[in-house]
Automatic annotation (TrEMBL):
Region (Disordered): 1-34
The protein, known as: Protein HflK
Description of how the protein assembles with itself and partners: HflC and HflK may interact to form a multimeric complex.
Species of provenance: Ancylobacter mangrovi
Function: HflC and HflK could encode or regulate a protease.
Amino acid sequence: MSWKNQSGGPWGSGPRGPWGTGPQSPGPNSPDLEDLIRRGQEKLRSAMPGGFGSGKGIILVVALAIVAWLLSGFYRVEPDEQGVVLRFGRFVATSNPGLNYHLPYPIETVLTPQVTRVNRIDIGIRTGDDPRRGAAMRDVAEESLMLTGDENIVDVDFAVFWMVKPAAAGSTEDIGAANFLFNVQNPEGTIKAVAESAMREVVGRTNIQPILTGARQNIETAVHELMQKTLDDYQSGVLITQVQLQKVDPPQQVIDSFRDVQAARADAERLQNEAQAYANRVVPEARGEAARITQGAEGYKERAVIEARGQASRFLSVLAEYQKAPEVTRQRLYLETMERVFGGMDKVIIDQKASGNGVVPYLPLGALSPSSAKPAPATQGVAK
């Protein structure tokens, strides 16, 4: 029995396969692909007088190809990109974000680097993935250990933030993006090498104490300026936006000893501050006391000078009277002197011409005064 007599092959009648009847279309059968191509060719022949082989048909096909080639020159630049137009591989212009046009390939091509994205490079540290702890930081000693200006070693970890320097649209002089594409083969490696070199230069001319304390901002600014100048000299088309110090410490092997030194310096500074405070308190007091003594001496000097001048004036006046009556003035001076000498003493008057012991009784008026609480010891004097 032949398969033809089985009405559809060995699986039965109709369009059946080895797994049963295939899916059936509910509508009319789809047209054959060859039939569609054939119909399209017929319509094209009817639209083109003379068919494909005629001159008009060839011209029309060439014109359509030229139009399609010219339309291929339109391109789009994203908001975070900038277009760099190349003519036969040479930079000619830049373009702004949006829809732009350049001569079609192969005359002109366009590259669109991202010029607004800020990139980061870590120097001295690496971020690794730990299956148990997640992201882990690893120190890279060959990058972070640096020599300071006072010949100490310091461990510096820092980060550099950079972006492609955008070129002025349509400019052929300010071509930062083009320089970035053609002048630097490995941008990240170049920026990393320049950053490490700049940091070593700045740290190498700075002492360790300012680096560890208050000079961080100055160091970041100096490294930033030095990096930008170097990259501009290279015409790299890179713009450094920030340099940020992450960690500045002594090496791990000597950090304990260094902390002891720091503590000793802090104690020394504290003692100096206390001594300065004591000096600020004592010195004004001493200066005040010295000023008081000086003023007292000046007052004594003025008083002594005035008294001496008074004594001299009195002596001159006595001299004038003495010259007028020497005997009277001499007697008056003697009596005044005796009065001044014996005025504050207890006296016993003895008259040698009197009979008996010669003691002349007298009334001590000073002893009878209420102001005399205790009599002074007796003192004998001789009066002639």
